[in-house]
Amino acid sequence: MTARTNRRTTAKSRIAAVGAIAVAGTMLLTACGDQTKSGSDTTKTTAGNSPADLLPAEIKSKGVIKVGSDIAYPPVEFKDKSGKTVGIDPDLAAALGKVLGVEFQFENGTFDTLVTGLRSKRYDLAMSAMTDTKDRQEGIDPETKKKVGEGVDFIDYFTAGVSIYTKKGDDQGIKTWSDLCGKKIAVQRNTVSHDLAKAESKKCAGGKKIAIEPYDNDLEAQTRLRSGGADAGSSDFPVAAYAVKTSGGGKDFQIVGDQVEAAPYGIAVAKGNDQLTKAVKAAMDAIIKSGEYKKIIAKWGVEAGAVTEAKLNGGS
Question: How far apart are CA 10 and CA 170, in angstroms?
Answer without folding.
Answer: 26
